[in-house]
Amino acid sequence: MPFPSLQLQKEYRSPQHDVANEFFAPVLACSKIYKRSVGFFSSTSLEIITKGISSLVKNGGKIQIVASPKLSEEDIEAIRIGYDKKSEIIEKRLLGELESKEENYFTNQRLNLLANLIAKDILSIKIAFKDNGSLVGIYHEKLGVFEDFEGNIIAFDGSMNESKTAMCYNYESINVYCGWLSEDKSRVELKIKAFDNIWNNTEENLKVVEFPSVTKKILDKYKTKDLDVNEITAKLENLDKEDRKKTEYKIDRSNMIGDVKLPIASPKLNIPIIPYDVDLYDYQKDAIDEWADNNFCGIFDMATGTGKTLTGLGAITRCSKEHEDNLVVIVVAPYQHLVEQWVEDIERFNIKPIIAYSTSSQKNWKDRLKRAIRDKKLRLKDKEFFLLVTTNATFKSNFVQEQINNIDGDILLVIDEAHNAGSGEFKKYLDSKFKYRLALSATLDRHNDEEGTDFLHNYFGKVCIHYDLERAIDEKKLTPYKYFPVLVYLTEEELSEYKHISAEMINHLKKNKSGKMELDTYGQKLAIKRSRIIAGAQNKLDVFKEQILPYKDKTNILVYCGSTTVISDAVKEDYDKSEIGERQIIAITKIMGQEMNMQVSRFTSEEDIETRKVITERFKSEKLQAIIAIKCLDEGVNIPSIKTAFILASTTNPKEYIQRRGRVLRMWPGKEYAEIFDFVTLPRELDSVPNHTEEEVKGDLSLVKNELRRIKEFSSIAMNRMDSFSLIDEIQSTYQITDKDLYGDNNSQEEDFNNGN
């Protein structure tokens, strides 16, 4: 079909137009030559290039692409000063851009086809930058030229880059010029001349270069199989069909102009929509379907890093659509920084949330909430939907509870890290006023709280998805890992103190309403004090020095400390009387920062949200080698670039150590697997156990069992699981512990304490 047969507009603006499908795809299908200069080179721009080109490829067409590198300030400064050759810096940046952060089937298939197009000289890529001697600037012009088989030419320019984000999510525009129209002819000729000058490297002050190493990287990284032209076009057509299906899924069918469906990313504000750059996996869609079939009530039990938040927002979108966007949504997260993480994703879904907590950037959030409730009650048009995102503490406040009671209409309650909602204080706020309910958690079951766990399951309903770490690793949603248990032994003073506190705790065991033994308030304080002896074991510091030494020059390291003090040699003699000591995190910071001269930063609750963002960005860019953290990574902080973790803070709570493991397993470019060094604390050296009395060994059992359970859990799905088996066997044999002893229900809590727990 020649170009004049197409019905083209003079201007396309997203999000009013689906630019990819309304302009690029039909024009490319009629083209024999496609010439395009874009703003920036990236893996997503390469993927987008393959859309709609099957007919062009089938008919022997050619594609020429000119792109610009993304240079950082450091790159430009290095070029100016002359540290490195500019071509080497640019090449490094281009290669870095090929480390795609997306890991899905369709992306990989398209990039494989693109690599085949390059191999067959159908597609050529050149890199352009402004070259003024010691200065390098960015070539940022966006223009394109199409030519059909009858010599008709279409040219366009505008703000849009050749990237998924630009085409599908940003607010962008292009202007279209048709060479067969008299009013456009001169403009088209100028565009053709401009592109040809660029391509042939004859444009003044502009350098256009081919980088063979970049072409090789594309072929090596993405070309999985040699394909002929017929195979390429067939696969392109199939992928285009799949894309059209996904587009149909994201079309708002109530928003039509004739037979033309406008994209779901319509300009209508504050209505939940799935953004074009979010492709939910099948397991996420299945979870949402199951939840909807259960009258929009249920639990998403998903391992850390498997897309729990996006699945939750997909569920919110589904519920809103099925209620014609007449819905109130309340999202509750434990901490302020988690609320802010939610806000980033909520806004991507076209929602303008009310952000409620004590130091919220929305200083008038209380007025916003009152106004939203009032507008909904008055049934004002386009005010039927609103979303409140808040912390646990603010959700329970008198003000928010009073406002919730004033809401007229259906409410969807979404609770993140929902295991926290099973506590006695929180439970009273969960009642029948929330018609629709969704619990999100990697570990919903509450440790040693069967009553709270039962409440959560009864209140939220069925588990709509159980997506654990093993499945996530198998399906390549999380990275595999190697596990290294590192043995540490208590000193005599520490063991004596541990047993002294254990004996005192026995006096604070009481039966609860269900007849189970539990600690009273003072007993719980003693338990915390005792756990800190394990977390802050003095010998951990020396052992840590040995373990960290091989990583002295490496990056992407997390060291997880306990919120505890380490008793120094100077006060050991007065251990029973003294609380003098150095916080473990300070001691570790000194070892790494001062003694080993590593670039490290602490990451604790003492750092505010902005400081944490700075630390995270420096860590991702490898300007920091290591983050030394306390507790806060249990609270949902997302730092996927962590590759090696040293966990000094021992815990017996499965919820905590499962979460800690999940934090380390998030996907990141170049991260083939993670490493976890788990500091396992035992009462005494294993070969000395036979030399102690039966009573002394019996007193060790509870601590040994707790540590052994964690070793077995961590090693069960590790890449090197066999390496841990001999240690597990040695510990079980030394203490004569069977699997029934570890996991059976015949040992009551009271018996454990009598044994020195």
Structural account:
By secondary structure, the chain is an alpha/beta fold. The chain folds into three domains: 3-240, 2-Layer Sandwich (Endonuclease, Chain A), CATH 3.30.870.10; 282-473, Rossmann fold (3-Layer(aba) Sandwich); 479-754, P-loop containing nucleotide triphosphate hydrolases (Rossmann fold). It has 29 helices and 28 strands. The strands form six sheets. Strands 1, 2, 3, 4, 5, 6, 7, 8 and 9 form a nine-stranded mixed β-sheet that branches. A seven-stranded parallel β-sheet has the order 14-15-13-16-17-12-18, sandwiched between helices. A six-stranded parallel β-sheet has the order 19-28-27-22-26-25, sandwiched between helices. Helix 2 (43-49) packs across helix 6 (105-119), helix 6 (105-119) packs antiparallel against helix 10 and helix 20 (492-506) runs antiparallel to helix 21. The longest helix is centred in the last third of the chain and has 22 residues, at 694-715. The radius of gyration is 30 Å and the shape is globular. Mean pLDDT is 81; it is low at 161-171, 245-267, 567-581 and 745-757.
Concise synopsis of the structure shown:
By secondary structure, the protein is an alpha/beta fold. It has 29 helices and 28 strands. It is globular, with a radius of gyration of 30 Å.
- The overall strand count is 28
What is the CATH topology descriptor of the largest domain? Rossmann fold
CATH superfamily of the largest domain: P-loop containing nucleotide triphosphate hydrolases
Largest sheet: 9 strands, mixed
- Per CATH, which architecture of the largest domain? 3-Layer(aba) Sandwich
How many domains would you count in the coordinates?
3
* Overall outline: globular
Mean pLDDT: 81
**Helix-and-strand structural type:** alpha/beta
List unreliable stretches of 5+ residues.
Answer: 161-171, 245-267, 567-581, 745-757
